[in-house]
Amino acid sequence: MARLVCVSNRVADPRKTEAGGLAVALSGALQAGGGLWFGWSGKVLDIEGPTPEDTHVHLHQAGNVTLATLDLSQWDHDAYYLGYSNAVLWPVFHYRLDLADFDAGYIEGYRRVNQLFARKLLPLLREDDVIWVHDYHLIPLAGELRALGSRHRIGFFLHIPLPPPQIFAAIPAHEWLARSLFAYDLVGFQSEADLQHFNHYAAIEAHAEDRDGDGRRWRAFGRTLRTAAFPIGIDVEEFDALATAHDATEMYRRMREEYSRRQLLVGVDRLDYSKGLPHRLRAFRELLRRHPDNIRRATLIQIAAPSRESVDAYGDILRELESLAGSMNGDFGELDWMPVRYMHRTMARRRLPGLYRAARVALVTPLRDGMNLVAKEFVAAQDPEDPGVLVLSRFAGAVEQMRADAVLVNPYDSTAMADAIQFALQMPLAERRRRHERLMDGIRRFDVHWWCRSFLDELAAADAEESGPDWLRL
Fold first, then answer.
1. Closest CA to 223 of 180, 177, 284, 286
2. How much is the pTM?
3. 236-445 is classed in which CATH architecture?
């Protein structure tokens, strides 16, 4: 059995549930065959200039999984991570060209760190390893490995959205990024919409040949690339265990006691402009104006976990959220009731199922999102006899699987969104049960194990092709 090698920007111990979504997603596949997980350690070296070539790779054993991590210099971290990854690719891939910093010259640092990762990873590889690279930080990694002589099967999964060709083509050197993707044997996307965006780019901009006529196998730059949509799911059994553990049940009990006379709405997000948090608060304010029966009855608990707050755009959204929450509480609040409970901090994952279960409505309303697993976790946490209702943005990747039974909203339309929230709050029990049952069927069927197995099976079937060492250089 071939060993699985996962590569991502950050590495976490897959045995720990607090490690987060990617660690939970990859845990089973990595531990099944004693895998390797390679990435940045999270540590920044106090040195000037690029990361030294003799920087040591730290090896740590987590059960039968080897964690291999690399420290980065401040210079490399700022150019690769804060710079090109999060000041160029992140905003553009979330359709926010206005927030992208194209002029700062970050791309050389991005290329350099991907080259460094390739040089440090290659000596750790076995001949029959299968490599699975994750997310936008590492788009060029397969090309750098190929340039060093790697002939492994290499797959790539994009966890965030892929924009339409007209937006993607706004990135300087977008041709190089697209060509880098053709160094992989398989590229996976969260949704069919993202896949179609890639297909349009491949056909129009890259002049790739659609080998089978179905947009699933493309030939360009001397290589054949398979593409497909693999919507990521959750580990239902793992989440059920969290939901029945002490921390979650205690959270549920406290919420039900404190809000026994209220209807709870909940939003759980990273603080990011892609999540539509100001739009959500404005819609909730519109709900109180248009449907005043919710005054003193409905409370929105909004958790906005800190995220990349050294970037100016995040400071702006933080100030806007604090202003909106404060003005709403000032305008509508009473001594014994405040409409918004806003928390700018991270809540422990083990407590979240209890909060979800206590809520009548979840607001998952991003302006653009690759998938958004909060939507699936909320549904999984519900009491099937008295479930809450999912209000879901039509711009979340999850909408392709949950369209029929979530309440869909346009986060840019605060009036229509307020009416949709009111509809969700007043939904009869029988309809809530029907919707929840169908949503849970899909969540169980397309869980994280299906996602992982489907991707790796497709990668195993991909055509392995040899490329010369200079094919990627433009």
1. 180
2. 0.94
3. 3-Layer(aba) Sandwich (3.40)
